[in-house]
Design goal:
Helix content is 28%, strand content 18%. The two termini are 28 Å apart. It is α/β, with parallel strands linked by helices. The chain is built from 9 helices and 12 strands. The longest helix has 14 residues. The chain has a 12-stranded mixed β-sheet. Helix 1 runs parallel beside helix 2, helix 2 runs parallel beside helix 3 and helix 3 packs parallel to helix 5. It binds S-adenosylmethionine. The site of S-adenosylmethionine (SAM) has 20 residues, from strand 3 and strand 5.
């Protein structure tokens, strides 16, 4: 089987699978707050088969996401089965999860024992009240903090904390997050807000850019840039005393589509070749028709070949993608 490569010559090695469309948070910049899950969940065995077929096509890294993946029954067993898969070079897959962290404290050890290597926790404020306002869930902050600390303690390494910044809303937390990275020994990554919300909140003015984050953090303490590889999405920095790491992911002000290595599968088994795709590709339909693994692989090859060159955020003809972030997974 040939390795996945798109028509622009980009090798596709990074698969993200959403294992549920449900989420227990209703973050104000992500969801309307009125709607629940909109798409089906598949049996875990179907996600495993999808991952297995992707691994035969050169996928090396699998990130489990949602909705909120820790809500999905069977998530630990899924990680365990994924850890038995091998890349084309015979290595274990690099297994990661993206979670809001609410249930992480109770699941972290089982996930690690099952073969999970790393965890990314989404957290948009380090102040409990603000956190509750953003997530529309009271007392979530304590649960997430406990999840982060447990993950650190048991050696899921690194623990990354992703923060989406919105001007006038949580950008006053930037320096506090710098302190948090140092105090908690986690990698904090600021992410530019993208037009992927259920509501229409996005405007260029609301995006807090990489340049601005750097300026604000540098006023708190000098930063030293960590050399980054071409394919890395984050620009990485440590503080002048070497304590704490922060990263900035800038898809809006400094797009990195030219070295995108990602493909996504939604909870209902559709392939998305870009976060901003205008339509999905129904891989699960191939499975429902009784297609073999080879049929699935052939379909995946043909879909990946069509991957978009880049997104068009902020350009005059920008069209809203066919799904919002919570129904894709990030
Ligand atoms: N529930 C999991 C979590 O909280 O990480 C996985 C799904 S969540 C949709 C994945 C990530 O997307 C979160 O870090 C969230 O902050 C981020 N996100 C949601 N909407 C976004 C947007 N419009 N722009 C950038 N990131 C966004």
């Amino acid at each position: 089987m040939e390795r996945l490569i798109d028509k622009f010559g980009r090798p596709i090695t990074d698969l993200r699978i959403a294992i549920t469309d449900r989420c227990n948070y209703k973050c104000v910049y992500c969801r309307t707050g009125n709607e629940g899950a909109q798409y089906a969940d598949l049996p875990i065995a179907d996600y495993l088969r999808i991952a297995r077929v992707f691994a035969t096509l050169g996928i090396e890294k699998v990130r489990i996401t949602g909705g909120e993946p820790l809500l999905r029954k069977g998530v630990v067993g899924f990680v365990e089965d994924l850890s038995d898969l091998r890349t084309l070079d015979g290595a274990p897959l690099d297994l990661a999860i993206t979670t809001n962290g609410h249930l992480l404290a109770e699941l972290a050890q089982s996930l690690k024992d099952a073969g999970l290597r790393r965890v990314t926790v989404s957290m948009d404020a380090v102040e409990p009240e603000r956190f509750a306002r953003i997530t529309r869930v009271s007392n979530g902050f304590e649960a997430v903090l406990a999840g982060i600390r447990t993950a650190r303690r048991i050696g899921l390494d690194p623990v990354k904390v992703n923060c989406v910044l919105l001007r006038g809303f949580n950008d006053d937390q930037i320096v506090e997050f710098g302190r948090f990275a140092r105090d908690e020994d986690v990698v904090v990554r600021f992410i530019e807000f993208m037009p992927l919300e259920e509501d229409r909140v996005w405007s260029p003015e609301i995006v807090v850019t990489l340049a601005e984050v750097l300026e604000r953090i540098r006023a708190f303490r000098p930063l030293v840039e960590i050399p980054h590889t071409r394919s890395e999405t984050a620009r990485r920095y440590t503080f002048d005393d070497g304590v704490g790491e922060i990263g900035i992911i800038a898809p809006v002000s400094q797009p990195f589509c030219g070295h995108c290595s990602r493909v996504r599968v939604t909870s209902d088994g559709k392939i998305r070749t870009c976060l901003f795709s205008l339509f999905d590709h129904d891989l699960h339909a191939v499975m429902r028709r009784g297609g073999s693994d080879d049929d699935m692989a052939e379909y995946i090859q043909s879909v990946v070949a069509q991957k978009e060159a880049r997104h068009h955020i902020g350009e005059p003809g920008f069209e809203k993608p066919s799904r919002s972030m919570v129904h894709i997974g990030g």
